[in-house]
Design brief:
By secondary structure, the chain is α/β, with parallel strands linked by helices. The chain is built from 10 helices and 7 strands. The model has no long low-confidence stretch (mean pLDDT 96).
């Protein structure tokens, strides 16, 4: 039975991936930051223990737990844990960017570097990083999240190049709009960091972003369920020759094509409509 470690399994994409991969025959280590979430997943039949990617000690303990449970092997890592902090770029304080990069990039990087030696020793491995359509193009109000995903894309591309002389494969999953709690989970970060009441864009916040955050509304036009991402993860893990990137949802495909074909000015006009 092949083994995989997944981060951020309390809900959404990570939760669906954990259950979907288990059904597909994988031994899944489904990790969460909170012990209560781990207990809930254990009750659902998953192997779950805590892993907070913001905490180096937690990362070390989680990897040690994997080693203890498998005897020192791990076939795959799916780096899923991430969060968003919406707001205009001019309103983002340094602390907000530091916080989001700690989770979305630095912790992911540290965990990845800790599992690579196991994969080298066993002679194979798959590292799958969850990026986003916002790692391809950026849109208003998502500056912090897009910056972290653009950085993740670059780091993953270089790691893939550097691992090309090894049997370790490095892959990006790039979802567009997926039904999850990422919007609701972003509210505490927005409230902590963004002083929108004193922003020169206060009227725009009130007319657009606040309604989207607090009132919800209809799902995005092209939104898919988390199972769509799980299907691409399985392809990335089980294909003999995995692609470097797997797009999920129509907006990701459109954005990827637009990024390659359109000038910056034309792309700005297209994205400015949102």
């Amino acid at each position: 039975m092949k083994t995989i470690l997944i981060t951020g399994c309390s809900s959404g994409i990570g939760y669906d991936a954990a259950h979907g991969l288990k059904r597909a025959g994988w031994r899944v280590f489904a990790t969460c930051r909170a012990e209560a979430d781990c207990a809930r997943l254990q009750a659902e039949g998953l192997e779950s223990f805590t892993l907070d990617v913001d905490d180096s000690d937690s990362i070390a303990s989680a990897v040690a737990e994997v080693v203890a449970r498998t005897g020192g092997t791990l076939d795959a890592l799916y780096n899923n844990a991430a969060f968003a902090c919406p707001g205009a770029v001019e309103d983002l304080p340094r602390g907000a960017l530091r916080e989001i990069f700690e989770t979305n990039l630095f912790g992911l990087h540290e965990l990845t570097c800790r599992v690579i030696p196991m994969m080298r020793a066993q002679g194979h491995g798959r590292i799958v990083n969850c990026s986003s359509v916002l790692g391809i193009v950026g849109i208003r109000w998502r500056g912090a999240y897009a910056a972290s995903k653009f950085a993740l894309e670059g780091l993953t591309d270089i790691l893939r190049l550097e691992m090309s002389d090894t049997p370790i494969r490095v892959i990006l999953i790039e979802p567009g709009p997926i039904a999850s709690r990422i919007r609701a989970n972003s509210i505490p970060h927005f409230e902590h960091w963004i002083d929108w009441r004193n922003s020169p864009r206060r009227a725009e916040y009130e007319a657009k972003l606040l309604k989207r955050l607090y009132q919800g509304g209809k799902p995005d036009r092209w939104q898919l369920p988390p199972a769509a991402v799980t299907a691409k993860i399985l392809r990335a893990l089980e294909s003999p020759h995995p692609q470097p990137r797997y797009y999920v949802t129509t907006p990701t495909w459109v954005s990827g094509i637009a990024r390659r074909l359109l000038s910056t000015r034309m792309l700005d006009r297209l994205l400015g409509r949102g």
